[in-house]
From TrEMBL:
Organism lineage: Bacteria, Bacillati, Actinomycetota, Actinomycetes, Propionibacteriales
Keywords noted in UniProt: DNA-binding, Transcription, Transcription regulation
Domain spans labelled HTH tetR-type: 11-71
Regions annotated as coiled coil: none
InterPro entries in UniProt: Homeodomain-like_sf, HTH-type_TetR-like_transc_reg, HTH_TetR, MftR_C
Top-rank taxon, per record: Bacteria
DNA-binding region boundaries: 34-53
SUPFAM superfamilies reported in the protein's UniProt record: Homeodomain-like
GO-annotated molecular function: DNA-binding transcription factor activity; transcription cis-regulatory region binding
Source organism: Kribbella rubisoli
Keyword hit for Ubl conjugation: no
Protein name stated in the entry: TetR family transcriptional regulator
Cross-referenced Pfam families: TetR_C_14, TetR_N
Length: 202
């Protein structure tokens, strides 16, 4: 039990640091944020920050990894007799929330927050960490799909990459939509189209 508590506290610290990094980068601009600022915002020491992350880019990218790992865990936990895409949709809808900054993804985002997100996501220094995060996320999703279906080969990876592509398209559309749209609505629309086999819209 003590080991489980320690792991939970470590996970909570990791999430707090990652969220602090995202929030400060959006509010101040990526270049204006130091790792000392992130540690202070999360209420931990600089040494503690360095125990979890090598850089502020890694801390920001960890937000996406954490969210996607929860989706993979949820997919594994869904009822075994549930159709694959029904389970995938439920897992994504349960955990693809943006936190308090996005009202859980249920309402359109605040304009100032969205502007900051756009600037942060175009920061060249962040791109490498984001790409590594997406690669890890793809592997975890493929593993969860393989476990759920009992299928090996390229199918689990193909499904995971379709999910990853949908996530990327949804995030891009969320950032440029005018007027702003909720990420929940965009996700539902993307998943509807995938499940329908991506027919040409009429």
């Amino acid at each position: 039990m003590a080991e489980g508590l320690r792991e939970r506290k470590k996970q909570e610290t990791r999430i707090a640091l990652s969220w602090a990094a995202v929030r400060l980068a959006v509010e101040r601009g990526y270049g204006a944020v130091r790792i000392e600022d992130i540690a202070a915002e999360a209420g931990v020491s600089l040494r503690t920050f360095r125990n979890y992350f090598d850089s502020k880019a890694d801390a920001i990218a960890a937000r996406e990894v954490e969210r996607s790992l929860k989706i993979a865990e949820e997919l594994r936990a869904r009822p075994a007799d549930e159709p694959l895409w029904v389970a995938i949709r439920a897992a994504i809808e349960a955990h693809f929330a943006l936190g308090e900054e996005g009202h859980g993804g249920r309402r359109p985002p605040d304009e100032q927050w969205l502007k900051g997100i756009r600037l942060m996501m175009t920061e060249p220094a962040l791109q490498g960490a984001i790409m590594l995060a997406y690669a890890r996320v793809g592997e975890e999703m493929a593993a969860a799909i393989a476990e759920r279906t009992g299928i090996t080969g390229m199918y689990p990876r193909l499904v995971a990459d379709v999910i990853g592509a949908a996530r990327g398209v949804v995030m891009a559309e969320w950032m440029r939509a005018d007027p702003p749209r909720s990420i929940a609505d965009l996700l539902a629309e993307a998943l509807d189209q995938i499940e329908a086999g991506l027919p040409v819209p009429e």
